[in-house]
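Predict the 3D structure for this chain.
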Amino acid sequence: MREETIGGERIELAQGRRLAGYAWFVLAFNLLTIVWGAYVRASYSGDGCGSHWPGWSSRRCA
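Done. Predicted structure below.
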């Protein structure tokens, strides 16, 4: 495999590409989580439990 020097260390390009792909996946997942949370908040979907949540003790939110 081809190797390249980055920051004084040699890494294989295939390994670097896998790491870059994983980093893009993590970024996309986090952005999707933020957008989904904004949608839930804007649509009031999270208000089903009322004002007692998350402080409820023995009662379950249905």
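Strands lie at 3-6, 9-12.
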